[in-house]
Amino acid sequence: MSTGNRNYLSGRALAAAVALPVVLFAGFAYAQVEGQPTPGGIGLPATVTEVGRETQAFYNALLLPIITFIALSVLGLLLYVSWRYNEQSNPVPSKLTHHTGLEIVWTLAPILILVAIAIPSFRILAHQVEIPESKLTIKVTGNQWYWSYKYPEDQGGGFGFDQLMKPENELKDGEPRLLAVDNEAYVPVNEVVKLQITANDVIHSFVIPAFGVRMDAVPGRLNETWFKAEKEGVYYGQCSKICGKDHAFMPMAIRVVSRDKYDAWLADSKKKFAAAESPTRLASSEQAR
């Protein structure tokens, strides 16, 4: 390999080594819109729960540096081997086939990396699956292709409703296309909410990125998860399982409000949904079809 080619490869390697971390870490400073995707956004979405922050910190502070280091190390090793051991620079190849020390290193290094990842990940996983005492339980059922919510009577509810995507011609100012819904689910801010998630037909997946919530909705099975939103606002998500032809049009929306506003919504919703539950469901099913 000529000196010019070697310098060219070295320059490319240096540029890649400088550009990759800049591109990766620039995303952290990019302003994300809470509750919905940001056009042109880089990095993980903004989160408003403790579990979400722990998950993102685990990724940004531990996984991303490890991923970057491994990627750059492998790239550097490939470039070095291509330069040092090509046929022109090394016409007589070595007969060495085994190196005990090297084999020990490349066996232990991945093990140590996985152990370093596993220890904090188990703690975060335990925080996600151990549901604290909740003040509100909502049953969420996935259907083709909409969501159904039930608020228990013993917690001030006693009603249910369906949640379908709003058509574009019904969107109001500020409502995102393909994410806004006809009936938003309400929850109180700074209170633990337990979700019981199932499905009527096929497997769906209930995902609210801003809450750090992702749980499969499986027919015949009741899965549970939880969140505690710390900021008022509307938070959107979408089904993340390919569940049929309208999978891309199956969003969910949860509005986090103060306890007073939540109590007022409960009172209004009892009148709106409790008496008209069956007609609402029939109309929702027809609209979904």
From TrEMBL:
Residues 133-268 form the Cytochrome oxidase subunit II copper A binding domain. Binds a copper A center. Keywords: Copper, Electron transport, Membrane, Metal-binding, Oxidoreductase, Respiratory chain, Signal, Translocase, Transmembrane, Transmembrane helix, Transport. InterPro entries: CcO_II, CcO_II-like_C, CcO_II_C, Copper_CuA, Cupredoxin, Cyt_c_oxidase_su2, Cyt_c_oxidase_su2_TM_dom, Cyt_c_oxidase_su2_TM_sf. The chain crosses the membrane at residues 62-83, 104-126. It catalyses: 4 Fe(II)-[cytochrome c] + O2 + 8 H(+)(in) = 4 Fe(III)-[cytochrome c] + 2 H2O + 4 H(+)(out). It is found in: Cell membrane; Membrane. Subunits I and II form the functional core of the enzyme complex. Electrons originating in cytochrome c are transferred via heme a and Cu(A) to the binuclear center formed by heme a3 and Cu(B). This is Cytochrome c oxidase subunit 2.
